[in-house]
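Blackboard transcription, Thursday session:
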Amino acid sequence: MRQCLLILLTVWGGVAVRAESPNDAAFLATLGELREATYSDKASIVEKLSQAGHPSVRAVLTALLEDRLYYRNHDGEIFIVKSAEGDPLNLVDPVSLKDAGTAPADGFTKIGTNNALRRELKAGIARFALSSPDVALRLEAVQEMLRSLDDRNAALLRARLKVEKNSSVRKEIATGVALAALDGADAKARLEAIATLRQSVSQDVRNRLALLLDKSPDGAFVESDEKVRRAAASAVESIDHWRAFYSGIQTIFFGLSLGSILVLISIGLAITFGVMGVINMAHGELMMLGAYATYAVQVAMPGHVGISILVAIPAAFIVAGLAGVLMERTIIRFLYGRPLETLLATFGVSLVLQQAVRSVFSALNRSVVTPDWMSGTLRLNDALAITYNRLYLVIFTLIVFAVILAVLKRTRIGLDIRAVSQNRSMAKAMGIRTEWVDAMTFGLGSGIAGVAGVALSQLTNVGPNLGQSYIIDSFMVVVFGGVGNLWGSLIGGLSMGIVNKLLEPYSGAVLAKIFVLVALILFIQARPRGLFPQAGRAPEDK
Amino acid sequence: MKRRAMLAAPCLLIAGIGLFKAAAAPDTIKVGVLHSLSGTMAISETTLKDTILMMIDAQNQKGGLLGKQLEAVVVDPASNWPLFAEKAAQLLEKDKVAVVFGCWTSVSRKSVLPVFEKDDGLLFYPVQYEGEESSKNVIYTGAAPNQQAIPAVDYLMKEVGVKRWVLEGTDYVYPRTTNKILEAYLLAKGVTSADISINYTPFGYSDWQTRVAAIKKFGSAGKKTAVVSTINGDANVPFYKELGNQRVSAEDIPVVAFSVGEEELSGLDTKPLLGHLAAWNYFESINTPANKTFINQWHAFIKNTKRTTNDPMEAHYIGFNLWVKAVQKAKTTNVEQVLAALPGLETPNLTGGTAKVLPNHHITKPVYIGEVKADGQFNVVWKSAGEVPGDAWSHYLPGSKDIVADWVTLKCGNYNKITKKCSGQNYK
Amino acid sequence: MLRSWNWLVGNDRGGAWFLAALTVVTAAVPILNQALAPSSALHLSAYGITLIGKYLCYALLALSVDFIWGYCGILSLGHAAFFALGGYAMGMYLMRQIGPRGVYGDPVLPDFMVFLNWKSLPWFWYGFNNFPFALLMMLLVPGLLALVFGWFAFRSRVTGVYFSIITQALTYALMLAFFRNDMGFGGNNGFTDFKDILGCDLHSDGTRVVLLVITAIALAAGYLACRAIVESRAGRVMRAIRDAESRTRFLGYPVESFKLWIFVFSGILAGVAGALYVPQIGIINPSEFAPINSIEAVIWVAVGGRGTLYGAIAGAVLVNYAKTYLTGAFPEVWLYALGALFVLVTLLLPRGLIGLAPSRSKDT
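(Written on the board underneath:)
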């Protein structure tokens, strides 16, 4: 008995140990064809591989998708590498998926992909991912399969529906199964499918249902059953209605996010102008300094893009704030009471700052990476997607606003600032050191500009011209909201953003902007001091 | 009274010096460089100034030209179009340069054109542009639409199977002309106008949310959709960022751009851009000995191995070599004779082929389509069979398909084949 | 004539100097260009003539800004809009003059319209083939805009920084509008490639000289007109408005009307400057509307010395000359020099460069 077992074990072990079975040989041969194939041939080879059913297929396809499939130059052997970066490369045998040692990178050539091929690969990999333990991966796989819904995918989805436990994945699979059922022969099944699909708000579903209402070239309806047609028409109408509703919400969100940028770039200006009567033409350049500070922090912390943004916020505040204090102490201090002179002097400073950045960093734009937790979209449903970076921006703006408000209303320095802006001589008489308060106020306004620069770095170019693009807008918001009034800047900025975005789909971007500007001009006629005018006599009223 | 007079006199003297001819210089050949070093275009043009300085250096080390050393005269027109004309006049009339390498935007070129034509100067223009022009005094080393836009659309139609098109451009003449040509081309190929969407946004446009959402909607009608982007300059960065954020991947709706090269990508986070396309006549990633030498030379000159090379740099490389060859052939820097020597002249380009000067003052260039890689380089997915000759006047536009430019036999830049009349820029 | 000259020398030394210098330049330019051979060292090339012409046009613009700012306290950060409108009016005339010599050979439509597939001339282009009409438009359009904008603004008593910012909004909106290709004004490329004006070839030296002389005359006339207004009773009211607006209003003066007509006059002056600028430079495009141009005009006045009229002119010529020189001599670092200049002048020379000269002037 023991002898029998031993023989059996040896035979099994022998089978297991043997590196190549007939399956493996065929697999390797197909894999080898990838070396010399054109892109379209590669697509058919990928299809062949996924049909083959070899256990390593998934790993190979994933490697090819991620640009990690190489062949050795001198003998053409295919290898997966663990990471495309680094020399020497860590090799993995594609058949056994075991480590195969390391080798210098220049002895290997990558097997390239293009867009079409990557599409195929994603579709192929999705089928494997359908049974992945990770919910997000399963959901993505189902969505990928919905994009290419053929019989094979439909069958896989139906099979999966029976065992799927997660509700959101179940919903997606149900949609897919229903879509597939629309091609079925039974009218009742089609009606049921439409009843399921009615709940969706996806554009793809809507398109598919609309196809049912089409006529074929000879005039007859594609869908023969009238009840089915009516159900489809009503479903399409319902989906359209909901999509329009969500699209409206999305537009308002776009407006809020544009508005929150306007608010961020103007709060600093509102403070320096409102409190100190200084027209700061270098405000845009202070934002630029903040954006460059973000770039510098990212360069200094190469592996930690995620927290680099959070580190950049105080860094930008300090850098821009210091620049502001420097400006105040050396130049603006001598120009109080002459707002128009400060305009000119700060204009000169802005030119110097622009050129300085060009000399130190080069005239080219700098690349600022968006951290992973800020990229991507929050898909509330198929019709409403909110990009994370903009969402965080709106929240960030509100936080900054709240902090500034708290600083001004609750802290000692805030009290000093308000006192000096209301009645400078009296504040001085009370013992407040007005020069120091002035410097701090200007530093605060500049620091906020720097923080705005951090936000801008996530949305647009970081280059020497960053400031120029935003300075006009920030002046508009400040004037609209009422100089010196923070709530005015908040409401003014948000409303200008929303109006702009509401108009845009109808009139185009340029006309929407022009309209907002003209509306601003007319508004100022009606309320010459903005939304929330400064109480008391303005310094220029004599 | 006296003091003021004493102050005024030296001021007037210094002022006067600025306006009159420069004093007699040592025996050099002057080469003018007319690129913006400040303002919005500085990002793109500063590199080109450095490229010419590098070429001049290299030529001087080879012994100069016609026995004399080359001297660079660099001016900064500061992205200001009237200043371009003024600086061009300064280079030609005051500094008396033998040739000028410069300009980027079409506006800058159009504003210097009358100056070059009146003063009989020579300009080498290195940037891809919209065509519809052929001047006796300009050699166009950048791509005409048939050397960039049309092949890109062909690739998308044939290799990718695109059926619906979004033509997204910045609102100025280059995108407008290119889109006109492309629209005519697509309609001629059987695409219906319902499947073409054309849209323009202003320079520096940064809030792309609405527009990208509209592109997504247009692209979800069930047919494969692509975006042909003639968005220029600064607006590209927020556009690509928004594409990435709204999850418009290259596999779903590919975007092919004509104004995005290695330099622009170096200022961008390329993660969301993987797989999007660009069409040029040169990519830094093309592996030829000439290209490797050029890249090494550039890195040594600019003292930074991270700097990229791009298509307009290659255009200046070709243009400079063509000029040197023409001067050597004509044995003089006199513009008329150099212009006579140029058509037909050939010089190697950096991708293994040759660039030849055509009678219409364009050159022959190969066409490459590349996909963006994570490291900011391009992966070539298609190339033209050989070099494509540049067409100054597009065959697809009714206003220009009858017009031909020929400075060798016809001696005219806008010759109408039907009416047999020479119009427009007809300078002897 | 002699009496006015004596008056000038007695009361407005700066003005007298300025007019004298202008006469010298205006006389010298034709001689240096036409009488001397091109190879001579003192020959003034077309480049030089164009440069001086440009400086004079900018000087006229600066004059119009100083007129309302230095004497009436109205800071307009959008005056380049009037400059550009006058320029566009002249440009439209010059475009019509090209006729069939354009790239596409159309006798009526300018090239950019043929390119946009337009079949006929838009209504606002009618009449620009006629020089007197175009001349009228060069004065009317900037004047009308100034009238409408000023009426709304001054009536609502918009002052100070609010006024300045809405003038920025105005010029920025105009810039965006003119950049649109659909507007019918050439879009981003603007108007270029002009051939001739009133039959004279724009590229010939002779025409350039004549244009320069006309600009100089316009500048002198503008200066004298401004000086006359400023020295009159109206001028005293202007200064009163500048120094104490509410008080002046309470004293019964129609402050809004004063400001409005001064603003319109200034707008027209700027329009004339723009109209003379375009044929000399050879191109007009929407970037002339850019807010930065208006700010630069104010800078010239501040550097030169505001509230003196001749200071504005001096400032415009000096700053622009500095720019020309620096962008040629130090192309990499000229912004530092210019920026530093502005800061130093504002800090150390509150009365501008004119403040450097010893003053015997009356209280301005």
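Lecturer's comment: The first strand of chain A starts at residue 69 and ends at 72.
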